């Protein structure tokens, strides 16, 4: 068989284009400090170049032509996005093998899309097939697009934590996230950009059709397209699960799978819990204990904790704290263990903490302890059930004797927190009751969290009412009111013995509480305890410890042991060194951490003084 000079020239052009594609991407990886490594790129050198040469031969379209541009962009999106954003975020190298997998998946996507388009073009219906290919390009680029949008918002690549938030989020929270971080105009511009991409891709695919519509496809070319399609699909099935993004996603799905194990082993864990019921608070001072879980409250922006804060947004709490005999004890150096709700509360509500290495699905909960200590347990929530699966919070909540959501669906409610107040009337005051109230508090949008009557502090014209400091202060003011109503009702009607309030995490008023852009105001939280005269008489040592610890440092992942101590319900699943209500509490600013051990509390430049350990 004689090869003409035209065929030789065509082969050289295709080979040069394939080699340029390969070399340019390798050079790109090296330039951003993400060198793939010879041991990874050399074995794929010949297969990749061969596939690209054959793709150009079978489709008769060059890699770097306008007709192939949408497919090339799709390839580069997968090959370049994560390594580049990781390098920009951390100034560090990612796993070389993962970069290789991203490269192969991106290249295989180009081969597959070119092969599919070539076949569709030959079937006719050019406009329909061009539109289909444009939409297919957009769909294939959805994950790179998400990564780029996220990076442009937070200047940080996606991490398991941010993916977890995306995975467990719901429609209403997604809308709040978009509104608070983007705003209407940028959101519209992004969608306009997407529409423009689809239109330009459609025009490029029409050009592809014009280049190939008169081409008589030989059996060899069609066979080559078939082989290339098969190989590209095989490459995707093998390499996609090993890519950078897939590894992050696997971390998230593994977590969700493990949290589901919590329900499976719960009865066995509960049965293993051993508590001396004759000496518990329920036995010595019968009545009600209430735990209120705040949302996105930062003590930086609360008058009771930060006197220089310009807004009087905690009048009830200030009044209670001003009375030395009120039984209210404020803690000025409390922190959250993380800056997002689910990771925080799965630790605060169970044995799991930053310091003990226990797993959530192997841990007992505060509800288990309260039940064993002689209480009827109640869970009332003004937050919807998270996401596709029950979150760790919901799994714990369902173990209560009674669990109710104001909006019993998998969405964020639009009800104000005072919607929880009528539920208190269901409770029998003659019984020992342990009540958990999970409020919406100051979750963004701040102005959505309080009724008009609490719009006391006005936003200036240049600030967004939804995310301004005055709106946030109003949300705290409303929380102060709701908590006061809970306290007043419980004290008058439920024989209140103790009440605890803490927030899941704090808030940065400019960037909310995203862990990828961490600042300490995201983890500085309010934490206070009320103990009645009856409690103080029945539990004098616990009471003394609680008063003594006002300036001690604490992270809320130790709440399980603290509640166990507060209820005087030590067990075989209790650590007194993590009990803030005990003189055995052994932690201080030097050995406490936040963000699951990533940051020491000594790094906080605004950390207050700590009283000496006795």
Chart the SSEs and their pairings.
Elements: H1 5-31, H2 38-59, H3 69-90, H4 96-122, H5 126-140, H6 142-154, H7 160-168, H8 171-181, H9 184-212, H10 219-239, H11 244-264, H12 266-272, H13 281-284, E1 288-294, H14 315-322, E2 328-331, E3 334-335, H15 341-348, H16 366-372, E4 376-381, H17 392-397, E5 402-405, E6 433-438, H18 469-493, E7 496-503, E8 527-531, H19 533-538, H20 540-548, E9 554-555, H21 559-566, E10 593-594, E11 599-600
Parallel strand pairs: 1-6, 1-7, 3-9, 4-5, 4-6
Antiparallel strand pairs: 2-8, 7-8, 10-11
Helix pairs in contact: 1-2, 2-4, 2-10, 3-4, 3-6, 4-5, 4-9, 4-10, 5-9, 7-11
InterPro entries: Alkaline_phosphatase_core_sf, PEA_transf_C, PEA_transferase, Sulfatase_N
GO molecular function, one term: phosphotransferase activity, phosphate group as acceptor
Keywords: Cell membrane, Membrane, Transferase, Transmembrane, Transmembrane helix
Structural notes for this entry:
By secondary structure, the chain is an alpha/beta fold. It folds into 2 domains: 5-249, no CATH class; 312-603, Alkaline Phosphatase, subunit A. Helices cover 50% and strands 8% of the residues. The protein has 21 helices and 11 strands. The chain has helices spanning 5-31, 38-59, 69-90, 96-122, 126-140, 142-154, 160-168, 171-181, 184-212, 219-239, 244-264, 266-272, 281-284, 315-322, 341-348, 366-372, 392-397, 469-493, 533-538, 540-548, 559-566; strands spanning 288-294, 328-331, 334-335, 376-381, 402-405, 433-438, 496-503, 527-531, 554-555, 593-594, 599-600. Helix 17 links the parallel strand 4 and strand 5 (402-405). The chain is elongated, with a radius of gyration of 30 Å. The mean pLDDT is 90. This is Heptose-I-phosphate ethanolaminephosphotransferase. It is a multi-pass membrane protein.
